[in-house]
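To whoever picks this up:

The parser on our side crashed when reading a file containing two proteins. I've narrowed it down to the boundary between the first structure block and the second sequence. Both blocks are reproduced below exactly, byte for byte. First block:
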Amino acid sequence: MKAYKPTSAGRRDGTVIEYKKKLTSTKSNPLKSLTAGGRSTGGRNNLGRTTNLNRGGGNKRTYRLVDFKFDKKDVPARVETIEYDPYRSGFIALVLYKDGERRYILVPQQVAVGDEIITSAEAKPKAGNRLPLGKIPVGTFIFNIELKPGAGARIARSAGNYAEVVAQDAGYTLVKLPSSEVRKIIGTAWASIGAVSNEEYRLVKIGKAGRARHLGIRPKTRGSAKNAVDHPHGGGEGRSPRGHRRARTKQGRPVGKGQKTRSPKKFSNKFIVSRRKPGRLMASRK
């Protein structure tokens, strides 16, 4: 993490990650055959209506085709480069398989250029390798976790995140997720060993409005500053309280402060062994 000298108000509060120390190259030169075009939606749907607030602008970005299915099994691969991906918080690695194919993968911590990784049911549980949950020892940190075999990684994919294998039970693996929830996942689903790279990401301070606009983040107006017709928290004389027991979104749904938003009849509730415990830090993050 790098903090600049306070030569301006924005510099005083902003911090950046020292990419030169972590990446093979800081130039934006991904492998062209593993990229795709596209443009920002600006938070609009196919009808042009705003469905996601506070999005818009931002720098033009090239999408990298990252492999989350890992359907090339029992073929060793060597890490060629570690690169930045503007569409995700963790770093990605370009790997060269023994048969000559190249793919992008989400790279874990402790994996460097030249290291060899493999996706195999007989693989050793070392950082970067991928194997079925049922064969991973208890206490191992994992990421890129499948919920259904062959469906691709769904859980623990953001920077610095990892889950922990806490038990093996009758064909299921009990996994403690980053949210502190303990969930049963079928033992034939696959996961990668380690924790996602770029663990300093959550410590970054944007510092100034201009930097946020480059990221595609538009200004956000408080609900209490709006009129009653525009937000459930709006209206009233002067600085009025929100008038509701629970904080709400513009659409009227509960949000923030550790409030439960999960459907009580969700089909996958039977796989939850222990509910997440929202603490002070989790409840206060926006």
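<<boundary where parser fails>>
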Amino acid sequence: MKKRIGTVVSGGVVLALIVFNIVLSDHSMTEAQRATLSVLLIVCGCSIVYCFTVGEIARNYSQMDKLWSLLPIAYTWIIAVRGGMNARLVAYALIVTAWGVRLTVNFARKGAYRLKFWTGNEDYRWSIVKQNPIFKHGFVWMLFDLLFISLYQNLLVLAICLPALACVGSSAPLGIFDLLAAVLAVLFLVLETVSDEYQWKFYQTKKQLLAEGKAPEELPSPYHLGFNTRGPWGYMRHPNYLGEQGIWISLTLFVIGAGAASHGVFHLSAVGPLLLILLFMGSSALGESISAGKYPKYRDYTEQVFKYLPFRRYREK
């Protein structure tokens, strides 16, 4: 019950911030920003058509998953080039490129990419979501693929890059907010990278031990738990999600540095990163429900360890 209340409160806070940014921000755009946005929308539209068409034909619904780390690199460099390659936009694009390379490599080693680009390992969660009775009719799933997987996620990926667009045309020199944005984004990137490395090594070792013929309950600690509690995972249930959200929220500080934010902190471009937080609320809830069904001690883990706050260390009972 406490978790549900916490989720509702957190979601309410995020929604309130979204509303405030929509209502209090200046919605006007310069001609350069409008022209750049037109180019971005063309790329986004092509991606939507590609993801839906290929996903339906190949019955592999991770087409957008494979583009998730690549499109922001393209978007931010398009913005940087069309914005005159000023220092703020280049710094933004470089950080996003580092983020994208890391995520692409992490996804590639899980078997997501193939020479036959429409194949590759699909995110295991899609097959679980598809088992929901609401999707028993194929037409309903096709609508979900079109509206959420292909359309909404593509628009969201574009939206999280729009703080860079808000900086186009700014002549403000680099300042404390730009430095803060870069430092925080890099720190969150490090957290995400370290977390994923611990996760990858844990499950690779667990897979190797199981291949040797050991039963899951006979595996040495902590592999007998089934889920990872090493590194940051011993202190937070989703350190990688914290890093991911933190990066994009941090980058919105560039907008304040560029002097584009209304009322000091509010700008319409911040809506994308805030919507990303809502997406991760749903994603984390789905992942935890799956893990709780697979691993007997996972519920004990969720009772001891906070989702994002590293205040308590997991101790197996």
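After patching the parser it read the second block fine. The longest helix spans residues 176-211. The radius of gyration is 21 Å.
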